[in-house]
């Protein structure tokens, strides 16, 4: 009984299919990752159980996972808006570091006297400076792309290396705390409020590290969803992404939008940097990111660029990052992310084509 | 600071970029954009190092590195050629995949001492003043192969029949298909070639130029610089070679700037405060951006070089691609 594959183009995509392919890719990637883990000598099932405990086991560890999800949500949304226009901002990592630097300026110069300024003003200024610094780091590749047609993938990536060394100079030299490779701890006025701060009033919050930054992420997701759904700008972004020629003939300025979207995307990634140092690290130091900027790319893609879907996907990947600290060898979470992304883009073929398995005798009857 | 030393080191490190960039030129000339060079290079560096350690033969390491890079590139090939996935996203995933694989499989390799590729002198040529010692002394065989590969690649692409097929597939796959050229086959072939050369470039790092396995620091973004070099070189292997060597020399010059106490008649700030070297580390990346600006302007002006079907999937029987 011979069988034969028949492939035909899909005319319309059923609503459930994109979700099914996303979930399917993740599941398959975990299975593959497990097999590789087995090959290098691990015990995948035992490890998975242990990791689940370490990631979602209690409120305290889940809050830790949410803390890691916070920058991912912001960066995922930042990437989504750029990718929607088919602008490949691979520099969210750098824009994150730029945002951390900008926010630190407020505290370390300091721009306002820290003793006498209310908390909300200090925090507000840090957000502003973080977003401006991130926006500048997004503007540069945007401008180069719009003006000189310079490939933004490479410029954003090169700018990542540049800003990390720029930050290092300040951390190692001007702002070094007694020769350590970090700045002094920020004054408490520059700390984002955490749930643990309210442990006196609510016993359950003691030790819960979740900070206000997670709200920035959720608000950013809502705003970008609104931009996509209702604003003229969002319509222009989608049109340029889908069909730049049509957008051009419709009188939409592509160069202006490239610059705007890159700066906006950079600002969101910069805000993630601000939220991380103000909410978690409380100082500027080396390696403030375990690759949030790159994981954010996968998050955005896995969420099919839907700002709301980015939130749960970020939590999943935050779990992977938390698990990555426990996992040996250390590259395994990187590997899993790579496999997930690969599965995902391969599975897109199911969205474009219908695949039937036909028995050849069956086919004879029909033809 | 000595010109011969800078030229010598520049040639050695430039060879890494040269192989990776020429591999990417082959791939892109067939219409496939593979941004995963960094991942393939890192995997190659790890595989070469590891294989040399376990077999005791550095050349077997080189072969394994090429094979590893090539196999990884085939993942990109399947996804972009048969599944018509977005080449940019697929290339990025390949970087993740290659990096992750290299880190997982390279666990415990740091600090090991496998046999390395040996250095040789070329008789007669080494006695040419100034450039002789820089170009023909104490280099690995692959550096000398590098001198030949750029002109050979140029000749192959521009003057031979298979080279013509390669260009046709990258420029107008439908036309190539209509005269019986196997578009898919050719795209797979050159994606594989690009992967092999990227893997080779990785092995040159870990077994010759700066021997050792330092996880992601081993390549530290050189794969991306190679991708930029392809645009700068306008898809021409000869320009890629020149750019690669120049870039290598600049990297060495930057390192050497930290040495002297007096620089151009002034007290050397880099000597006084070593933290200023962070600005030096930025330089290669900054230079890449600057080179890319000039390269892109030239490409935009002449509208030449870039294969016109680059990044577009080819579907048999569909119009207009």
The description of the largest β-sheet of chain B is: 2 strands, antiparallel
Structural class of chain A: mainly alpha
The amount of beta strand of chain A, in percent, is under 5%
| Percent range of helical residues of chain A | 55-70%
CATH third-tier fold name of chain B? ABC transporter involved in vitamin B12 uptake, BtuC
End-to-end distance of chain A, in Å? 17 Å
Q: What average pLDDT do the residues of chain B reach?
A: 88
Portion of residues in beta strands of chain B equals under 5%
The helix/strand class of chain B is mainly alpha
- Uncertain residue ranges of chain B: none
CA-atom Rg of chain B in angstroms? 20 Å
SSE layout:
The complex is a heterodimer of chains A (367) and B (321).
Chain A: E1 3-9, H1 17-39, H2 44-56, H3 59-84, H4 92-108, H5 119-148, H6 152-174, H7 213-230, H8 232-242, H9 244-249, H10 254-281, H11 292-302, H12 307-326, H13 332-352, E2 353-359, H14 360-366
Chain B: H1 3-29, H2 37-55, H3 58-82, H4 87-105, E1 119-120, H5 131-135, E2 139-140, H6 141-159, H7 161-171, H8 173-178, H9 183-209, H10 222-232, H11 237-256, E3 262-263, E4 266-267, H12 269-272, H13 277-302
Helix pairs in contact in B: 1-6, 1-9, 1-10, 1-11, 2-3, 2-4, 2-9, 2-10, 3-4, 3-9, 6-7, 6-11, 10-11, 10-13, 11-13
Report what the structure shows:
- The complex is a heterodimer of chains A (367) and B (321).
- By secondary structure, chain A is mainly α.
- Chain A has a domain at 72-311.
- Chain A has 14 helices and 2 strands.
- Chain A has helices at 17-39, 44-56, 59-84, 92-108, 119-148, 152-174, 213-230, 232-242, 244-249, 254-281, 292-302, 307-326, 332-352, 360-366; strands at residues 3-9, 353-359.
- In chain A, helix 2 crosses helix 12, helix 11 packs across helix 12 (307-326) and helix 11 (292-302) packs parallel to helix 13.
- The longest helix of chain A has 30 residues, at 119-148.
- With 321 residues, chain B is mainly α.
- Chain B has a single domain (3-302), classed as ABC transporter involved in vitamin B12 uptake, BtuC.
- Helix content of chain B is 68%, strand content 2%.
- Chain B is built from 13 helices and 4 strands.
- Chain B has helices spanning 3-29, 37-55, 58-82, 87-105, 131-135, 141-159, 161-171, 173-178, 183-209, 222-232, 237-256, 269-272, 277-302; strands at residues 119-120, 139-140, 262-263, 266-267.
- Chain B has a two-stranded antiparallel sheet. In chain B, strands 3-4 form a two-stranded antiparallel sheet.
- In chain B, strand 3 (262-263) and strand 4 form a beta hairpin.
- The mean pLDDT of chain B is 88.
- Chains A and B meet through helix 6, helix 11 and helix 13 of A and helix 3, helix 4, helix 10 and helix 13 of B.
């Amino acid at each position: 009984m011979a069988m034969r594959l028949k492939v035909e183009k899909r005319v319309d995509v059923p609503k459930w299919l994109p979700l099914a392919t996303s979930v399917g890719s993740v599941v398959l990637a975990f299975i593959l990752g497990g097999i590789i883990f087995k090959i290098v000598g691990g015990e995948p099932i035992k490890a998975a159980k242990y990791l689940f405990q370490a990631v979602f086991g209690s409120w305290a560890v889940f809050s830790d996972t949410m803390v890691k999800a916070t920058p991912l949500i912001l960066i995922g949304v930042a990437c989504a808006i750029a990718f929607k226009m088919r602008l490949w901002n691979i520099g969210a990592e750098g824009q994150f570091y730029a945002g951390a630097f900008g926010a630190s300026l407020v505290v370390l110069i300091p721009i306002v006297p820290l003793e006498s300024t209310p908390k909300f003003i200090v925090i507000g200024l840090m957000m502003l400076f973080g977003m401006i610094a991130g926006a500048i780091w997004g503007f540069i590749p945007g401008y180069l792309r719009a003006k000189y047609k310079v490939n933004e993938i490479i410029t954003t990536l090169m700018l990542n290396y540049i800003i990390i060394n720029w930050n290092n100079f300040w951390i190692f030299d001007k702002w070094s705390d007694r020769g350590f490779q970090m700045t002094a701890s920020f004054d408490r006025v520059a700390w984002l409020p955490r749930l643990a701060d309210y442990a006196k009033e609510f016993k359950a919050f003691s030790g819960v590290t979740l900070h206000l930054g997670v709200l920035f992420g959720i608000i950013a997701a809502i705003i970008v969803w609104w931009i996509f759904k209702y604003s003229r700008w969002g319509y222009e972004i989608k049109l340029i992404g889908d069909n730049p020629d049509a957008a051009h003939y419709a009188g939409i300025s592509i160069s202006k939008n490239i610059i705007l979207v890159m700066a906006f995307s950079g600002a969101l990634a910069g805000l993630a940097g601000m939220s991380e140092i103000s909410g978690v690290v409380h100082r500027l130091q080396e390696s403030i990111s375990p690759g949030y900027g790159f994981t954010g790319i996968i998050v955005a893609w896995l969420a099919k660029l839907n700002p709301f879907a980015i939130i749960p996907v970020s939590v999943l990947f935050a779990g992977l990052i938390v698990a990555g600290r426990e996992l040996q060898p250390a590259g395994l979470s990187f590997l899993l992310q790579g496999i997930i992304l690969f599965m995902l883009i391969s599975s897109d073929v199911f969205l474009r084509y219908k695949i039937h398995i036909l028995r050849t005798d069956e086919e004879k009857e029909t033809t | 600071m000595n010109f011969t030393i800078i030229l010598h080191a520049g040639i050695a490190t430039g060879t890494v970029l040269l192989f990776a960039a020429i591999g990417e030129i082959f791939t892109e000339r067939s219409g496939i954009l593979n941004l995963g060079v960094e991942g393939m290079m890192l995997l190659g560096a790890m595989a070469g190092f590891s294989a040399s350690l376990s077999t005791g033969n550095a050349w077997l390491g080189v072969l394994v590195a090429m094979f590893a890079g090539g196999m990884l590139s085939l993942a990109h090939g399947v996804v972009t050629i048969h599944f018509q996935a977005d080449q940019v996203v697929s290339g990025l995933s390949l970087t993740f995949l290659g990096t992750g694989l290299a880190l997982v499989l390279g666990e415990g390799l740091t600090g090991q001492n496998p046999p390395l590729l040996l250095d040789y002198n070329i008789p007669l040529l080494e006695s040419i003043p100034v450039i002789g010692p820089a170009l023909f002394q104490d280099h690995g065989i692959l550096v000398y192969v590098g001198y030949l590969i750029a002109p050979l690649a140029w000749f192959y692409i521009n003057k031979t029949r298979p080279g013509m097929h390669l260009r046709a597939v990258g420029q107008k796959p439908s036309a190539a298909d209509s005269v019986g050229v196997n578009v898919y086959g050719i795209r797979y072939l050159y994606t594989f070639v690009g992967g092999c050369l990227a893997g080779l470039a990785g092995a040159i790092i870990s077994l010759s130029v700066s021997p050792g396995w330092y996880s992601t620091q081993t390549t530290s973004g050189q794969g991306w610089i190679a991708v930029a070099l392809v645009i700068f070189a306008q898809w021409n292997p000869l320009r890629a070679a020149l750019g690669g060597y120049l870039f290598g020399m600049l990297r060495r010059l930057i390192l050497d700037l930290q040495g002297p106490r007096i620089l151009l008649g002034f007290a050397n700030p880099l000597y006084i405060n070593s933290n200023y070297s962070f600005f030096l580390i930025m330089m290669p990346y900054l230079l890449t951006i600057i080179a890319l600006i000039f390269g892109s302007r030239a490409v935009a002006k002449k509208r030449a070089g870039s294969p016109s079907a680059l990044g577009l999937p080819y579907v048999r029987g569909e119009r207009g691609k």
